[in-house]
Design brief:
The protein is elongated and about 80 Å long. The N and C termini lie far apart (about 80 Å). The chain has helices at about 5-30, 45-70, 75-80, 85-115, 120, 125-150, 160-170, 180-195. It has one domain (about 1-210): Transmembrane di-heme cytochromes, Chain C (Fumarate Reductase Cytochrome B subunit), CATH 1.20.950. The chain contains 8 helices and no strands. The chain is mainly alpha-helical and about 240 residues long. Bound molecules: protoporphyrin IX containing FE. Protoporphyrin IX containing FE binds near residues 66 and 71.
């Protein structure tokens, strides 16, 4: 039996989040296309950024891969492929744990840099002050869930994963989430809050991977060597 609160959290909230996420992205693209940026602070500080940024981004890339496998692929499919549950959880704990640890350490370095570098701190906006704590809480709760999966032998693929798929299939089953341990539920709730904030924060840059670079036309560069050019090169400042 699902109570009204569970219904609200696990059947209504996910769709509200999706509406805000998709609607917000469309709105931002139409009204703030030139503000669609990571608001890079590399010019202010690059030493810590060079360590924190790749650790965080590559860690997160593997975490996303783990989420696709763990949430979207049913346990029956991995069993059919010959991967026993014990083996699945061992690999998921090792790979997910390493990727999660990279993400946590990378984010830690980025937050330390933002806090300790005066110019970067000054460049921190109001939405950053909401986004970074939400991101940190989501990632830390995810790590807690991973450790919990291992230590209490909890199988989230029998509850959280089918619930997640039920949302995508437009047939929500909130009862699957009602008895799930708290860290998993908090992780999913913080993730939803993060998705709702996404379009209004610097996180929009995640949707701007420069994929068109692979197929854009060549850029033609011409030489400035005056012996090869059709006219003499002018001195740098003279544009007459
Ligand atoms: C509603 C969306 C989400 C659901 C249902 C979900 C679910 C889960 C589950 C069940 C785990 C435990 C995996 C295991 O024990 O092996 C986990 C771990 C984790 N999650 Fe999420 N998650 C969501 C969104 C996110 C988001 C948006 C982020 C980061 C921005 C994130 C970051 C992590 C991290 C860092 C871990 C620990 C490392 C790992 O196991 O990959 N999750 N998540």
């Amino acid at each position: 039996m699902t109570d009204a609160f569970d219904l609200l959290l696990w059947a209504v909230l996910p769709y509200l989040t999706l509406v805000v996420l998709v609607g917000g992205l469309v709105w931002r693209y139409r009204h703030d296309r030139f503000g669609w940026t990571t608001r890079s602070s590399q010019l202010h500080e690059s030493r810590l950024l060079r360590i924190g940024s790749p650790l965080f981004h590559f860690g997160l890339l593997f975490v996303i891969g783990g989420h696709v496998a763990g949430l979207l692929v049913p346990a029956s499919v991995t069993r059919w492929l010959g991967v026993h549950d014990e083996m699945y959880h061992l690999v998921s704990f090792t790979a997910g744990g390493l990727a999660g640890a990279g993400t946590v350490v990378g984010l830690g370095v980025l937050l330390y840099r933002r806090w300790r570098t005066p110019a970067v701190r000054r460049a921190t906006s109001g939405d950053d002050r909401l986004m970074y704590p939400l991101l940190a809480a989501t990632v830390l709760l995810g790590m807690t869930a991973t450790v919990l999966t291992r230590s209490i032998d909890y199988d989230y693929r029998a509850t959280v994963s089918p619930w997640f798929r039920s949302i995508l299939l437009l047939d929500p089953d909130p009862s699957l989430m009602s008895a799930v341990p708290l860290p998993y539920r908090l992780h999913a709730l913080f993730a939803m809050a993060l998705f709702a904030l996404w379009p209004f924060s610097r996180l929009v840059h995640a949707f701007s991977a420069p994929v068109h670079y692979l197929i854009r036309p060549y850029i033609v560069y011409r030489t400035r060597d005056h012996r090869l050019a059709s006219r003499r090169a002018r001195p740098g400042w003279d544009d007459t």
